[in-house]
């Protein structure tokens, strides 16, 4: 997302192209004697260092608060000990696996359907007219409000949990896909048609790649929604899972375990988001600006 | 003999709030095979609409547009179009852009590659065949778009202000290159521009349009020899023609009231 990363990507492209002129501003007398680009230095390295410093400060403040301030607040050490206990007896692994499975299944089904429906709505005015009222309506209903309905209709197994996560992912990402299809540059479609492309080819070779950036943004939103629905979905008579574990701990006033759950959810969510961001960069690096 | 492109009372209207707006109010114009015709006129007089009709991207509301004697029913690879805003597929490299039209045919990969490389070479982009459009300058993008149109070997080139966004030097270079290729391969070219000098320099005939409603104002023959050179560009004959076109563009009788 930063302009530095974009610059680097552009420079890679230019320098790897054979016979190409060096990029503007590049030294012509060999890189060895060239001063380092100050912009790259100033912005790049310190940011990561700053991030780490911030994390360290956060941990320090937390430890301090736990040690002398807030009543009953467990410190980082206690939480770390609890985490390794839970890891040792396999509880945390089991919870992570159960939660990840629910989120991934719900997210994948939800965003896959969102892509299909979004494309149909963007491409066929009839489909738009048919789907729009339902999507607009369900978007105003928080996914969590569907839980009672899901339990009554789908019982208390895995299905209602995945269904709620699925709805959250679907509803939050379908609009992005739809918007992406609508926003495809009209001249690109014309350019393909005058080269002999028929509707099918226009759709596959122009509309899909052109709306890829929107779809990926939609998927990131969908993932966020799926993940944030997880804990509540696991209210439905779960036997394992991070959300379940935290609720269970709540009844025993087990703050250590609650913290372990919170941090695990945060870290896993961050990792998944970064993975999608990476995919987004790779798939949409052709964009002029972002 | 049938005309290459033929407009017969071609009309295009658009629905607006109170009634209809006549973008093009009945154009009759014939363009012969291998002819180079430029179109100039004030903004909004329907130049793009005219070109779009020949391309099959804009449907006439009345009248007829035909190519090779057959009514135009849609776009097709026999008519290459070059847009002002380049319209390159940004996710494809130069080569893949140029190959786009060829991939829609059953042409074997080797021949496709050879054809694409030839077109890329023709516009001088060989060193950038694997570059993405975002890394190209405006002039290079437009050359890539021209190569993409050449690759499918259309009989007609329809160009809508293709050099409008370029600096003067690049524009002159691309004009000369276009004339070179036209002299060799003799496609029929319909070229829209707002630049009077460019219109005269390139064309055998300049079509001057008027606005509200869009229509053909005058057609001016350019009796200058090819190849067109700097000498011709600076000649008195050229200046006289340019003045004549300039006059009919900028001193048009006021449009006949409401469109
Ligand atoms: N989709 C549309 N709906 C309504 N009006 C339109 C539409 N497309 C074009 N017009 C109108 O038709 C007229 C002719 O448009 P056109 O684009 O052909 O003009 P032009 O001569 O190419 O202008 P320019 O030199 O500015 O490119 C304009 O007045 C424009 O407002
Ligand atoms: Mg125009």
TrEMBL record, chain A:
One of its GO terms (biological process) is alkanesulfonate transmembrane transport. SUPFAM superfamilies: MetI-like. Residues 96-276 form the ABC transmembrane type-1 domain. Residues 1-20 have a biased composition (Basic and acidic residues). Keywords: Cell membrane, Membrane, Transmembrane, Transmembrane helix, Transport. Residues 1-39 are annotated as: Disordered. It is a multi-pass membrane protein. Residues 21-34 have a biased composition (Low complexity). GO terms for cellular component: plasma membrane. It comes from the Bacteria. Its main location: membrane. It is found in: Cell membrane. Pfam families: BPD_transp_1 (PF00528). InterPro entries: MetI-like, MetI-like_sf. The chain crosses the membrane at residues 48-67, 103-125, 137-156, 162-182, 202-223, 258-279. Belongs to the binding-protein-dependent transport system permease family. PANTHER family: ABC TRANSPORTER PERMEASE PROTEIN MJ0413-RELATED (PTHR30151:SF0), ALKANE SULFONATE ABC TRANSPORTER-RELATED, MEMBRANE SUBUNIT (PTHR30151). This is NitT/TauT family transport system permease protein. It comes from Actinacidiphila yanglinensis.
UniProtKB/TrEMBL annotation, chain B:
It comes from the Bacteria. PROSITE patterns: ABC_TRANSPORTER_2 (PS50893). It holds the Pfam family ABC_tran. Keywords: ATP-binding, Nucleotide-binding, Transport. Residues 5-236 form the ABC transporter domain. The keyword Nucleotide-binding applies. One of its GO terms (molecular function) is ATP hydrolysis activity. Gene3D superfamilies: P-loop containing nucleotide triphosphate hydrolases. CDD domains: ABC_NrtD_SsuB_transporters. SMART domains: AAA. The keyword Phosphoprotein does not apply. This is NitT/TauT family transport system ATP-binding protein. It comes from Actinacidiphila yanglinensis.
């Amino acid at each position: 997302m930063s302009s530095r990363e974009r610059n680097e990507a552009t420079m890679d492209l230019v320098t790897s192209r054979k016979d190409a002129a060096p990029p503007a501003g590049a030294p012509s007398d060999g890189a060895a004697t060239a001063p380092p680009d100050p912009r790259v230095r100033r912005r790049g390295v310190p940011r990561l260092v700053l991030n780490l410093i911030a994390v360290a400060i956060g941990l320090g403040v937390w430890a301090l608060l736990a040690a002398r301030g807030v009543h009953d607040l467990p410190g980082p050490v206690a939480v770390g000990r609890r985490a390794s206990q839970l890891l040792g007896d396999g509880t945390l692994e089991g919870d992570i696996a159960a939660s990840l499975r629910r989120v991934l299944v719900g997210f994948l089904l939800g965003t896959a359907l969102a892509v299909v429906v979004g494309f149909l709505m963007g491409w066929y005015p009839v489909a738009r007219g048919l789907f729009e009222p339902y999507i607009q309506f369900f978007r105003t209903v928080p996914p969590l409000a569907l839980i009672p309905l899901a339990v009554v209709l789908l019982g208390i197994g895995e299905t209602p949990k995945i269904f709620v996560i699925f709805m959250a992912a679907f509803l939050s990402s379908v609009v992005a896909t739809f918007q992406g299809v609508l926003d495809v540059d009209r001249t690109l479609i014309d350019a393909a048609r005058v080269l002999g492309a028929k509707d099918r080819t226009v759709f596959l070779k122009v509309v899909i790649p052109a709306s890829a950036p929107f779809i990926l943004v939609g998927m990131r939103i969908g993932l966020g929604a799926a993940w944030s629905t997880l804990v509540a979905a696991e209210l439905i008579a779960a036997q394992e899972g991070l959300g379940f574990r935290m609720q269970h701990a709540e009844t025993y006033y087990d703050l250590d375990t609650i913290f372990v759950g919170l941090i695990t959810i945060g870290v896993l969510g961050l990792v998944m988001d970064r993975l999608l961001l990476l995919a987004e960069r790779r798939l949409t690096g052709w964009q002029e600006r972002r | 003999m049938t005309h290459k492109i033929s407009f017969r009372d071609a009309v295009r209207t658009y629905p607006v709030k109170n009634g209809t707006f006549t973008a093009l109010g009945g154009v009759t114009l014939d363009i012969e095979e291998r002819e180079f015709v430029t179109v100039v006129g004030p903004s909004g007089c329907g130049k793009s609409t005219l070109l779009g009709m020949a391309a099959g991207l804009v449907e006439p509301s009345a009248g007829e547009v035909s190519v090779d004697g057959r009514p135009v029913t849609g776009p097709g690879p026999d008519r290459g179009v070059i847009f002002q805003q380049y319209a390159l597929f940004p996710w494809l490299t130069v080569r893949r852009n140029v190959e786009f039209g060829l991939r829609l045919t059953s042409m074997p990969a080797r021949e496709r590659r050879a054809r694409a490389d030839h077109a890329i070479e023709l516009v001088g982009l060989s060193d950038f065949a694997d570059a993405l459009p975002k890394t190209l300058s405006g002039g290079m993008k437009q050359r890539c778009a021209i190569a993409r149109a050449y690759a499918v070997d259309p009989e007609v080139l329809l160009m809508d202000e293709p050099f409008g966004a370029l600096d003067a030097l690049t524009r002159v270079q691309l004009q000369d290159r276009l004339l070179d290729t036209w002299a060799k391969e003799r496609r029929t070219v319909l070229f829209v521009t707002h630049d009077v000098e460019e219109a005269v320099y390139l064309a055998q005939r300049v079509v001057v349009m008027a606005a509200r409603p869009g229509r053909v104002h005058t057609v001016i023959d350019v009796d200058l020899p090819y190849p067109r050179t700097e000498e011709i560009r600076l000649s008195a004959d050229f200046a006289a023609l340019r003045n004549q076109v300039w006059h009919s563009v900028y001193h048009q009788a006021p449009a006949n009231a409401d469109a």
